[in-house]
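Contributing new complexes? Match this layout with pyridoxal-5'-phosphate.
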Amino acid sequence: MDTINYQFTEAFAKEMDSKDPMADFRNEFLFPKVDGKEAIYFCGNSLGLQPKSTAGYIQRELDNWANLAVDGHFHGEDAWYHIRKKSKPALSEIIGAHEHEVVAMNNLSSNLHFLMVSFYQPNPKKFKIITEAGAFPSDMYMLETQVKFHGLDPDKVIVEVSPRKGEHTLRTEDIINSIHEHEGELALVMMAGLQYYTGQVFDMKAITEAAHQVGAKVGFDLAHAAGNVPLKLHDWGVDFATWCSYKYMNSGPGNVSGVFVHERHAEDTSLPRFAGWWGHEEAERFKMEKGFIPMYGADGWQLANSNVLALAAHQASLDIFQKAGIENLRQKSELLTGYLEFLIGQITGDSGVLEIITPKNPNERGCQLSLHIHKGGKAVFDEFYKHGVVGDWRHPNVIRLAPTPLYNSFLDVYRFARILEQSLKKFT
Ligand SMILES: *Cc1c(COP(=O)(O)O)cnc(C)c1O
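Output block (do not edit by hand):
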């Protein structure tokens, strides 16, 4: 794959598109317009595009509601009562898990809290949490307030692993060393699987092994990893994980999150939980009796009956993922992001105007590249937008670009590169 001879020509980009087995999936999505023209959309890291099929999936549930009302809970193959089961085949492929290890529910930030209730049990000996420095704000606030909830001091509990001086991303060895350095006191490693700012994929397998060696639990926030890079949560032995579905998973703004709980915890009724009736043993649920009995597996962490309209939109996207296959998408993704990296290199060379801070090694990144703009600043980014490129700007000087394999083309990447070339000429 790395032997490909990329070229900075429109003809090359078009040839790549014509050979791309995933190319037709682009037609299944709705593209936003900038100034009346279809955008070059590189913002799937923030909000994935709407599948054309989504409206029909939602309409079907609206019709069920209109025609069946309360009977919709138990009627026919769409019965809402069983809707949690529908997303499991696709989710388990995307996440690398067994079906009983995954469930779609709530929102990501809520799920982080609920999972911490079960998997962060500090005691006077083991109470520390390792995370990455510069984590997504919701994750930072979650950790801070969870620690305070247990009556502890965040400054004494939360250990942040930072990049070395002059480096932008974390070295696996530094994360592992930190795990060993704190081993006597470490309760949990809770970090991103793919860092939202730098685009770095962490070595989840190695981190999990190291944490388990010292008797700590491991959880990952997979907001930027799910639907972007292939994952093997079950085989890696990760204890728990959660993600959102509106970024690479294209399920619509704020839509449902997913949860993974490893099989080894499936029957552990001793884990503390904040329970609700939807996590209660299904056969007993409508007896409406006292005494919580958790369902087997991830389902036992559910609280409330499912948001059917939200899950319909979720399913529209999951069905596309299942048709495409996460491994096929990944193959294209490496080529597409490799092409973007190549073209940026052709344009900027060693001029120092910008620097890609995302790892060069494809195994250490997903589709996103993060650029540090050293000259021209936000004016360069604003110029992109004027020319129809939707990316995102992160204070103080980072542009994130995420060509996603489901709906971006090599021609998108080529066109973007020409716009980048012009913008840099104008502002540097
Ligand atoms: C996007 C993102 C979130 C957002 O959380 P919501 O609860 O969906 O608003 C949280 N954490 C990370 C790491 C993210 O990338």
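Reviewers usually confirm one structural detail per submission. For this one: The chain has two domains: 10-30+326-427, 58-322.
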